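Backbone geometry:
***
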Amino acid sequence: MPKGFQSAVGGTNNSELAIIQDYMQTLVRTGWIAEAQEILTQLTPLGYVVDEALNQAICEARRAPPAEQSKLEPHRPVGCLENGIVLSSLHFAAQLTDAQKRAAFKSSVRKIDVETSTQCNRKCSYCSNSLHDRRSFNKYMPDAMFERLVTELATIDYSGQLSFVGHNEPLMHADDLVKRLSFARPRLPSARIAVFSNSDYLNAEILKALEDCGVDDLNLTVHTAPGKTYDECVALQRMLDLARKLGLKPSVEEFLKGIKVHLCLAGSKMNVTIRSADMQRVGHNQGGGVPGAGLQVKSRTAPCVESLFGFIVGHTGNVHPCSLVVADIPQHAHCVMGNLNAASIFDVYASEKFIAWRRQLLTNGDKCAPCSACPCHTKDTPDNWNEMVHKAMMLAADADAGTRKRNAA
């Protein structure tokens, strides 16, 4: 149950009741039908009527064959974060069926980054590309690997964000990007597809091609020129020039002197935004991979939830649990959770190594490198987060013990 459930069902706090209904909808979407039904049976005697569509969805799901209803047993959800991320015993259990691995992925992964090419035209001082060559050559993700990734996501009707981004500039090879988008969009109708770019190669023709491919979000960044210090007025002028070039209408969403500028551009089928910030001051150091850049942390102890909801795929198929980990940096090689040449996305997410990574990152305590130097995602968890995580771990241990006992019988 989400925090506040008991007080909500015992009183008339409409805001908490709304939270409960959102939680129930998330449970239904991610396959936890019995748990959604359990909440419904507690709410009904109190006179609370859930949304008719939600009630119908629960009833229809409960009419599924017994084997379908019980495929997640004996696992249980313990709570829900924002954006429909469910934490459950599935995320820590070593003995999972294929159906349970898919359920673990579907119930929490909401951000997938895929790097379909490697080349970037810039060497920003706050990026690892300033230390490693990604300008003089390009490598593509194999078509077969990309298509298999999309096909596997389609089997769970993936509804999170699929971002075309990496330590690259996707629009340097726009024809290849459009080909990938054209394959992914019809197969992932529920996903939100995003493209990230430094905007250097963007023009009206490419803008239309991205629109025609069904891209939802185009996220642009204006970077500080080499050898220059950040100047928000210079950045703003470049943003306005780009808006005119694209024929879009800009509006300022945020302007913090000396720190950042954020614009939205109206007139496109996509949600187009442009951002610029003093990355040397407020950026990140890519897990210590770019010494001196961004916010500095000496010894992180706060939990991080990205290993729960993030799934980062490099051009070779290597999977990382965080977008700040850099596949090309030798000191980050130990962060590879698996490779899609050897396993499915579900097998990698439920692998022993990924589980061990989550155990360390989701709890309080000293973090190992590169996470020990990372300042990100330090305020994304509720007050009872540690209690939720430890409960999920205990339930996972019990479930694994039961599975081993049944297998030994």
DSSP finds 15 helices and twelve strands in the chain.
